[in-house]
Amino acid sequence: MTGVPEEAERFLAAHARAFLLVRRADGWPTGYPMLGLWRDGALHFSTYAKSAKVRNLERDDRVCCLVTSDDEDDPEFRAVLVRGRAEVLPGAELPSGRGADEQAAAGRGVPEGIVERSRERLRAGKRVLVRVVPERVSGPSRAGS
Amino acid sequence: MAPRERISMTEEEVRGFLATRRLLVLGTLDEDGAPFADVVPYAHDGGSLALALAPGSRSLANIRRDGRVCCIVERFSSYYEIKGVVVRGRAREAGGDGEAVAVRVPLEDVVSFDFAKIRRRA
Hints:
Structural class of chain B: alpha+beta
Shape of chain B: elongated
Distance between the termini of chain A: 24 Å
Mean pLDDT of chain B: 89
Strand content of chain A: 35-45%
Order of helices and strands of chain A: HEEEEHEEHHE
Helix content of chain A: 10-25%
Radius of gyration of chain A: 15 Å
Strand order of the largest sheet of chain A: 2-1-5-6-7-4-3
Strand order of the largest sheet of chain B: 6-7-3-2-1-4-5-8
Number of helices of chain A: 4
Low-confidence stretches of chain B: none
Distance between the termini of chain B: 21 Å
Oligomer: heterodimer
Shape of chain A: globular
Structural class of chain A: alpha+beta
Number of helices of chain B: 3
Number of strands of chain B: 8
């Protein structure tokens, strides 16, 4: 991807409410609400290494992500669409050893104890980092548009 | 019980939660099988979700080709109040008024979570 539109990039950097859509083994689409962190031109999530979503991503790495405003009742509610391929990275490979979603978690008021447990599990290899390098980005746009 | 079962909602709680929200994330399949997502308005009538899709939208084109969809309704007001419902079902067109096409998704396969049910550690 040569570049993410500036307005979309600003939105991605400022919002952590995200949804990760993938395809299951039976061909059905499925999705997960996530904390998403935009960093270094890619969208990052952390999740359990043995989770269904990791199995789904390893089978078919094509993903579609939506990053949205926090509050759906806000008249200014917007969403940015990020499509691309997902890479699953062991927690040990994280730059600076930080959990990918720590900053996102802090931004959404996740209790420190929960963030600390997530960090430990990343270091222990129980959690992994999912990195989505965008191929197509659109928005921010209103719901249903 | 598995962690997810411990924090899942009852059927009544799912219905109550769906009634309080008005937008969901709709996942559909593109022609090549890749997932696509959009935020769409919906209403809930007990047995199904009634989605309002824009006539020229990619989501609608996808559903006309392949009705398999997932719908995610989620609320995150604070960590211990996170609630969510994920519905998978076959979407069917159910009329429209020119401005929006109505699409119904039956509550066939429902997964839910309510973080208020997490047993908090000290």
